[in-house]
Amino acid sequence: MIKYIPELTDVVLEEIPDRVTLALEISNCQGSCPGCHSSFLKLDLGRELTPEEADRLIDDNFGINCFLLLGEGGDPGALLALAGHVRKNHPRLELALYSGRQEVEKEIYDAFDFVKVGPYVQSLGPLNEPTTNQRLYYHGEDITPRFWRKGKKSE
């Protein structure tokens, strides 16, 4: 079972480049990133993200072109089944997954168009810093540099 936090679900413009993205925070996180900004997501909380719930969220958010899960939860089978459902029933949407793991299985890359890997390491910074250890892949291509700030001024 995959659970999400309805109150934190939002349409975002910066998580996935050039996409209007419906982002869902997934609970039951298996990671242990020091300095995690959402450590409460390690808990078993929220609402079950069933295929019907995913359909409702997508239908209620006209104009999105990407469906993002911010976390994998603790049930890989349910995660892949949900991705398959969204792909089949909403073919206009691209699918994205933020994983805190360093590596993910081939099945994850096959199921999602965008896959972010790498635990958050505070000293290396987030995805928008060139020093980050995190990577965002689009169909296997590393597109992480698209997040890096151009001409950032020293402060």
UniProtKB/TrEMBL annotation:
The protein, known as: 4Fe-4S cluster-binding domain-containing protein
Organism: Candidatus Cryptobacteroides avistercoris
